Amino acid sequence: MKKMFGVIGDPIAHSMSPAMHNDLFALYDIDASYLPFRVLKDDLEDAVKGLKALGASGFNVTIPHKTKIMPLLDKIDPLAEAIGAVNTVKNENGLFTGYNTDGPGFVKGLEGHAADFKERSALIIGAGGAARAIYFSMAKAGVKRIDIFNRTLEKAEELVATCPYQVQSRILDRANAERLLGEYQLIIQTTSIGMVPEVDISPLSLGNLSSQALVSDIIYNPLKTKILKDAALNEAATQNGIDMFVYQGAIAFEKWTGIFPDTQRMKANVLRHLGGFSC
Ligand code: ATR
Question: Which terminus in the chain has less CB density within 10 A, N or C?
Answer without folding.
Answer: N
